[in-house]
Amino acid sequence: MKKVLIDCDPGIDDALALALAAGCADSLDIVGVTTVGGNVDLEFTTANALALREFLQMGDVPVTPGSAGALLRRTVRATAVHGDTGLGDVVLPAPRLGPSEGHAVDFIVETLKAAPGEITLVAVGPLSNIALAVRREPRIVQWARDLVIMGGSYTRGNHNPAAEFNMLADPEAAAIVFEAGWTVTMLGLDVTLRATLTSDVLERMRPLGRLADLLVPAAQFYGVVTAEGGPAIHDACAVAYVLDPGLFTCVPAVVNVETMGEFTRGMTVTDFRLRDRRANALVATAVDVPAFWDLVIGAYEKLATR
Ligand code: BDR
Ligand code: CA
What we know:
This protein is α/β, with parallel strands linked by helices. It has helices at about 10-25, 40-55, 80, 105-115, 130-135, 140-145, 165-170, 170-180, 190, 200-205, 210-220, 235-245, 290-305; strands spanning about 1-10, 30-35, 65, 120-125, 145-150, 185, 250-255, 270, 280-285.
């Protein structure tokens, strides 16, 4: 059983990633969900995580809110992509349970400290919470079994030509995280944009009962679904990597996050030529798309019949 702590900003693809994790409860132990301001304000990312915990039958997994904004920068949101409240036009039943006491940064530090070497951190939003946790307790770098992020790219951006959204939303946090001394597994746009949700995939979601009431409208809000293409469910790639790393090809690299550039802030400058340097990242360069969707849909089917 792999243990994961998921730091997220739901967010449509965050929601679909949580559903993937929830559907794999037989092989994945979700020890906590922490929220960060990102796609929408923290108030909404937390409310969505709470609603998803119950809708996805995640039991009593603690949901702990964290940082509302970037360490230094003005707030950047992605409401044009995820809607004003973060889940497009999906309205989930109001959750009965509230968030845990305390702050995500303390939760991350204490949870990793209690189980050194056991827990994989999966971060699929801006890296504000993870950076603050590194600063508060640098030993989390040793305590975490792994850090897997959705973010960055070595070829392009999506928020602008240079920067991927999670990196642009808090570039200083991303720089702290990449410089912390661990090896960051980076599932960036280079792979996530290949695993698009086509109409074939959507048809496999439609029969999934009440789960389909989340998946189908969320996917359609997220992008135009056709036989050839559709929206990329970025964050699900990070969870899929934890479940089955063999779905992805990953290459060691040195990744530096640009924090000063006028036009390139948030760019993940990726050098695959290590020379004598230690790689600070394992960068995903390829994904087996059919196998990825088989994993995702298989998990959703398990969840729908639970
Ligand atoms: C990333 O940015 C967010 O909008 C998504 O949730 C994902 O984490 C993709 O660039
Ligand atoms: Ca996200």
